[in-house]
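Run: sequence + zinc ion -> complex structure.
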Amino acid sequence: MKTVNGHEVIQLFESWSPKSFALDGDPVGLHIGQLNRTISNVLVTLDVTIEVVQEAIKNNCQLILVHHPPIYRPLKNIRTDTPAGKMIELCIKHDIAVYAAHTNLDVAPGGVNDLLAEALQLQDITVLEQTYFEPMMKLAVFVPTTDASRLREELARAGAGQIGQYDSCSFSAIGTGRFQPLEGANPAIGQMNQLEEVDEEKVEVVFAASEKTRVLKAMFEHHPYEEVAFDLWNLESKTNQQGIGRIGSLTEPISLDAFAQKVKVQLDVPFVRVVGTGYAEIRKVAVLGGDGNKYIQKAKRAGADVLVTGDLYFHVAQDAQTIGLSVVDPGHHVESIMKAGVSNKMNRLCEQKKYNCTFIPSSISTEPFRHL
Ligand SMILES: [Zn+2]
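>> structure
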């Protein structure tokens, strides 16, 4: 097993749930402490409270991975006679770092929204609202035919030519390249001041914009010419499309009241608030962990019969009623499903990498409400 530092642990986490998936303005990332140290235990929690930090200390955790960013708005002070200041003081005194993964974890495949959709046993789960994509780029490079297959292989290894469930995609056309080496040149083929003609292949590949540096590096390293002729374009097409919320179907339609009961059982909550008539038929379900007040129109347009979301406002509930969308509100704390979900996923990834690091779900409930 390999001893790892905080940067390696976070890099592994971000290979699954990158910060770029977060919605604009969401303060994700490192909130407290630093990562340049050995990490053997990580506590996974929905919120960081003083009790949660004490749990981290007890479990010898050097890092807390939290869903709700503890410093959401800029702080005006860190007074240790306030709960927030005390929590920060405790982390710093015990050298515990805090890293927040919020909407990027909602969006990530297998993240909070997928965990909720799977817990509700939805079928054919898709994204409710697309919030992220990467633009594609295209490269056309001219290479002697004798070197073309090696270059194509290296471009594919660098991530070029991935389209859907296919890799190593490329297109080639054969032609003639011409050039005249001048004083100071060091040509792989040809003589000084003589016009040269070479049988060349034009190799075209597409790739996600984030792979540009890797792909160009591979092209320069594995091309025989000192001056590589190539064209590079930004494309309109998109790849790696991700989004927030999920929508899926029940295996068979049930009444709204039966569905509400199912939510209680499957998401392990003591009560739910329900908007809509009890006998309304539910087939298609939209789900968005946390506060999904903004998504009622979106859920309705996507064909959902019901939206499962927390923190439903009085007037939004009235709007939902007006547009004929049922809503089941199991509370915001339902997102605590991420504690086990993230721990399981990260422990699997650490095992694959042989990292000596364990993710532990917090056993402390951060639900502030009691229901009488
Ligand atoms: Zn939340």
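>> summary
The first strand starts at residue 29 and ends at 32. The pocket of zinc ion is lined by residues 68, 290, 332, 335 (CB under 6 Å).
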